[in-house]
Specification:
This protein is mainly α. Helix content is 67%, strand content 0%. The mean pLDDT is 82.
Amino acid sequence: MSKKKDSVFNFEESLANLESLVSAMENGALSLEESLQAFEKGIRLTRECQAALQKAEQKVQILIDENGSPESANFGTDSDDGANL
């Protein structure tokens, strides 16, 4: 793997790691020291994920501000406009 690829934050991977840590802690599979390390790592992953979500939300807001408010689309099956695709 390239060094540049390693430095890019991967939200899905971080979330999977966080879920794995929580599962291991809930199952009691870790020693006290391992649990503390997992907790510290979990806090870091949580903060990184929250920051990534906040950044994505800001990007969406900027796009909405630039292009006007989004219009909702009716994807229901009540109409005959291609609902049976």
